[in-house]
Design goal:
By secondary structure, the chain is mainly beta. The chain is built from 4 helices and 16 strands.
C-alpha cells in the first residue's frame, strides 16, 4: 500500500515556493474536548481510538528550515531560517484539513504575513539540525520566544511500523503528512484559509529522547512532561504555497466566489483571496459575486 499524493494545482504568478530542509512533524495526542475549546463554531477535532482504549485528537508542531523562499514573480530570496507551524487535525463544516494555532519564524519577514493577511505569526529564535547519515540518524531543534524554550531531540527508529490510532497500515501517511487545506484565526475574530501542495512524503520514523513545545502547553493541550505520539522526518521537501490566503466563509452562508468575473481557482468556493491592506488611492479588488 502506498500513498500517491494529490494532483499539483496549476502554479500562478502570485504563488510562492520554498525548499524545506530538516523537515519533521512532531505529533502529540491531546484531549479532543480541550482542543475543541480553541476552535471556531463548525470546526471539530478529528478523533482517534488508541490502543489503550481511550480516544483523543492529534496536534503537530511542523518544524523545518526554509531555503530559497520566493514568490514566483521574484527570484529566490536566498533566505534560510527556522520555522514552526502549530496545527491540529480537524474538519471545518465537514471538510478535513488543519487548524493553525500560529507560526514561529526566525526572520524579520514575520511581519509580512502578520501585517498583510492578519496571520498569527511571531518572531522566535529557532535552531534545527539533522544528522541524516548518522547511524541512527538524529534530529534536534530548539526555539526561544515569549512562551519560553521549546525543544525536541529525536533518534531514528526503523523498527517502528504501526501508528497508534490508525487501523489501516498507512492511513496515517495521508492524514499527518499531506493536509493541503488549512484555516487560521485572523485579527478581528474572522477565519482565514490557505492551501499548499507538496509531493508525497517518504518520512522516516523517529522516537523522542526529550521534547517540549510551550505553545501547546500555553493552550492547555500538553504539559512539560508530555511525550510525542510520533515523529516523522525527512531531509528535504519542496512546497508550493498558494498565496494570497483567503477569508473563510462557512458553507451555509457562502456565495459562489469570483474574482474579476472569473472563478477563483486556488481556494474552495467562497474563499476569496485576501489582497491585504489597501494602499491609499489604489483600486479595490472586485468583490465576490453571487451566482444563481
Amino acid at each position: 500500500m502506498t500513498f500517491a499524493g494529490t494532483p499539483r494545482p496549476p502554479r500562478r504568478w502570485h504563488h510562492a515556493a520554498t525548499e524545506l530542509d530538516d523537515f519533521a512533524i512532531v505529533t502529540y495526542r491531546v484531549c479532543a474536548q480541550r482542543l475543541k475549546e480553541h476552535l471556531p463554531e463548525g470546526f471539530m477535532p478529528r478523533e482517534f481510538a488508541f490502543d489503550d482504549g481511550d480516544t483523543g485528537a492529534l496536534v503537530s508542531a511542523v518544524v523545518f528550515r526554509d531555503r530559497d523562499f520566493h514568490f514566483r514573480f521574484c527570484p529566490p530570496a536566498r533566505i534560510s531560517c527556522g520555522q514552526i507551524n502549530y496545527r491540529a487535525y480537524v474538519t471545518a463544516h465537514g471538510q478535513p484539513g488543519v487548524w493553525f494555532f500560529g507560526t514561529a519564524l526566525d526572520h524579520g519577514l514575520v511581519n509580512v504575513p502578520r501585517t498583510l493577511w492578519g496571520m498569527p505569526w511571531r518572531r522566535s529564535r529557532i535552531g534545527i539540525t539533522g544528522e541524516w547519515k548518522a547511524a541512527p540518524a538524529r534530529w534536534r531543534m530548539t526555539a526561544d520566544d515569549s512562551d519560553g524554550t521549546s525543544l525536541c531531540e529525536a533518534v531514528e527508529d526503523p523498527t517502528l511500523e504501526r501508528m497508534d490510532g490508525f487501523t489501516e497500515p498507512l492511513a496515517w501517511l495521508e492524514l499527518l503528512t499531506h493536509p493541503t487545506i488549512g484555516w487560521y484565526p485572523r485579527r478581528g475574530g474572522t477565519v482565514g484559509t490557505y492551501s499548499i501542495w507538496h509531493p508525497p512524503m517518504r518520512p522516516r520514523r523517529f522516537t523522542a529522547r526529550s521534547a517540549r513545545f510551550t505553545m501547546f502547553e500555553r493552550l492547555g493541550l500538553t504539559t512539560a512532561d508530555s511525550m510525542p505520539h510520533s515523529i516523522l522526518a525527512q531531509p528535504t521537501l519542496h512546497f508550493d504555497i498558494h498565496t494570497p490566503p483567503g477569508r473563510y466563509t462557512p458553507p451555509a452562508v457562502r456565495p459562489r466566489a469570483s474574482w474579476g468575473g472569473a472563478p477563483v481557482p486556488d481556494h474552495a468556493a467562497g474563499e476569496a483571496p485576501d489582497p491585504g491592506p489597501r494602499a491609499a488611492g489604489s483600486r479595490r479588488s472586485p468583490p465576490a459575486r453571487s451566482s444563481p
